[in-house]
Amino acid sequence: MSTAPSLQLDSAALADEYDRLGIRQFNHGLQLLDALSLHEGERVLDVGCGTGRLTESAAQRVGAQGDVLGIDPLPLRVERALQRAQGRFAARVGRAERLADIDDAHFDVVYLNSVIHWIPDQPQALREAWRVLKPGGRLGFTTMPADVPHDLHRVLHALIADDPQSQRVEIGAPNPLTRDSAASLLSSLGFELTLNEIRTIDDAFDNVDDVLTFSRASSFGNFLSSLEEPDVAQLRERLADALEAHRGPRGLHLTRRMIFVTARKPLAH
Ligand SMILES: C[S@@+](CC[C@H](N)C(=O)[O-])C[C@H]1O[C@@H](n2cnc3c(N)ncnc32)[C@H](O)[C@@H]1O
User: Fold this and answer.
1) Can you identify the CATH homologous superfamily of domain 12-147+173-203+256-264?
2) What residues does 236 pair with on adjacent strands?
3) Percent above pLDDT 70 for the chain
4) Which residue of 141, 156, 221, 225 lies most exposed, with the fewest beta carbons within 10 A?
5) What pLDDT is attached to residue 162?
């Protein structure tokens, strides 16, 4: 069953922290842009653009003749994206499931970097992507695999496993996919799959507070949001101990796996 995250928990501080710590999503997002082979002059839509760091790279790749739009439901993130854009790309508030005011067959490329697992109605979001893509246009997304959890999520699940009160605590995104479910979703909508693979990403964090701040900022406040402050503090202590097993030369080393998917809207359909 799909679940909607809250879009009411974001704050200026979280948006700023995301801009600082979201370099991790940016780095794997660059791999997604490589896989999508953006060309000069293309029109690109970044769905769930956040604070616009990757949108800026897309705009550099398509150049002055190209056109890039980022949309995101969180006004504070869009505000930061617009500060970054300085007119080189457009950004506005919007949701994947309803790409209002965008004409059919307008974009060459639509991508969602670390976004689709937050979307409750993924078929509707991908139908909208299909609608706004030109025939032959490319779709790409990265997402966390439901069946290969991040190190951090495994550690946290182990910490709360024997506490029935904590079983519903928000740890990862609510609607993760697998390679298989991503493939069947796309093919049910008519897309031709061109890439569907899991890549390994090694992150390093200075300390446990960086890990927690990164998780809160990346989840726009949803991470652990149902816990009271004393329970978060207690979990932080236990997490700090558990993460010592992950200490390495660059700090706390945590591995993530990400599914990289690209697909094409057929020329004739
Ligand atoms: C982890 S951030 C990724 C931001 C950006 N794509 C990046 O690579 O840095 C997830 C983003 O998904 C956005 N998001 C959540 N639900 C969404 C929806 N229904 N439609 C579009 N974006 C959504 C959030 O607002 C947030 O900015």
Assistant:
1) Vaccinia Virus protein VP39 (3.40.50.150)
2) none
3) 98
4) 225
5) 72
